[in-house]
Amino acid sequence: MICDDKLLLVERAKNPGKGLLGVPGGFVDPFESAEQALCREIDEEVGVKVDIHQLQYFGSWANEYLYAEINYHTQDFYYVVELASKPQLTLQQSEVSGVKWLSKHELELNQLAFCSARDALAKWKSS
C-alpha cells in the first residue's frame, strides 16, 4: 500500500523474520485467488479493507520460507494499492508488532525479512 510516495511496511511479530519488515500478505487459502487472499490478509493484519479492483499486479518472485524447521519454496506475488490518504490502522498483534511508512530513499533492503521482498522492493526503489 502506497500513500504520498511512501510504502506501508509491517514489522513481523513472529518468525520467520521476527522484528524485520515485510509487506502485508500471507498464504492463499483453499478456493481463494491470490488477489482475494491479499485483500483478506491486508484486512486481517492492518484492518484496512481493499477493493480487489484497486490491486495492480507488480510482479512475482521465488522465495524460501523456513517454518517449523521445514524450508518451503514459495512463489510470492506482489501488488500495488495506491491510497489517497493514510488509513486508520488496526494491527493484528499476533502477526504485526508495528508499522512504518517509508519512502524509496528511506527504505533499506537489509531491513526486509524475505529475499522476495528485497527483490520486489529493489524494483520499486528503482522505478
Automatic annotation (TrEMBL):
CDD domains: NUDIX_Hydrolase (cd04681). GO terms for molecular function: hydrolase activity. Keywords: Hydrolase. Its cofactor is Mg(2+). Residues 1-127 form the Nudix hydrolase domain. It holds the Pfam family NUDIX. This is NUDIX domain-containing protein.
